Amino acid sequence: EDPSSLPPRPPVVTIMGHVDHGKTTLLDYLRKSSVAASEHGGITQHIGAFSVKLSGGKQITFLDTPGHAAFLTMRQRGANVTDVVILVVAADDSVKPQTIEALKHARAAKVPIIVAINKVDKESARIDLVKSDLANNGVEIEDFGGDVQVVCVSGKTGQGMGDLEESILSLSEILDLRAEQDGMAEGWVLESSVKSIGRAATVLVKRGTLRKGDYLVAGKVFAKIRVLRSEAGVEIDEAPPGTPVEILGWRDLPDAGDQVLQAPDEDKARNAIEYRIELSERGEAVAQMA
Ligand code: GTP
Ligand code: NA
Ligand code: MG
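Above: the input record for the complex with magnesium ion. Below: its predicted structure, written as tokens.
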């Protein structure tokens, strides 16, 4: 199938950077300015991922814990859930060890980055120093003829945040992100926990559309979707590609980093799980013999 004929999907963006450079503050700002958040009175629950609907109707999905064990697991399994990395660098602290670490991750995953120089509201901000430090660490920023966009922002005052959203959208347009909306769905577990309402897993849908009543297999765990909830805690009917969604209805708790596959019916889902259990038992037996 010609990929360019598939429907567009929202970009999935991961925020990375050194400790205290303002990742959470930036995300909180984006979340609050989101149309979805204001629609639901701004009451959001933490599910490790959220989507921002911009006033123009476009959507951006943000993943908020890059240190997440799930990311490493998913990458080891060959899945790049992230389309864009926002590298946050505090203007008063410049490039630090975890900035360089984040750069390495983005490069290893071959994910394009946008630099957000944060805390530009501070008097101690040294924007030019940050830019030259970035260049000295091999980041080919626009200012010096490269193609990495740099946006100056303040998560505190909101300065430059519109520009950051614009940069993400324009990069996404270039990336031309598309996904199948029909057919058997596929996704990844970002996090999972047992809540008062039952076993819950936040799943990022990669392709296809998840709906209530669908059968899923994640690792060796079966689910029949009982409830789908948005990050705002609101029940939704369906989750299209690029959307993070909380799913209830698991027979057991799946692990962060597990791939989620939809099965056409209950029998096929259960057979897939039996087969996986058998394979892993055989694998263990082989490992014991060795
Ligand atoms: P970790 O998750 O611990 O790595 O930190 P973080 O990168 O999420 O940073 P966080 O958002 O917690 O911000 C760290 C501190 O910087 C907090 O005290 C914020 O209030 C402050 N801060 C964040 N952004 C800005 C900004 O744009 N301007 C100013 N002046 N302070 C900021
Ligand atoms: Na912090
Ligand atoms: Mg934080």
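Notes for the reader.
The chain has seven helices and 14 strands.
The mean pLDDT is 88.
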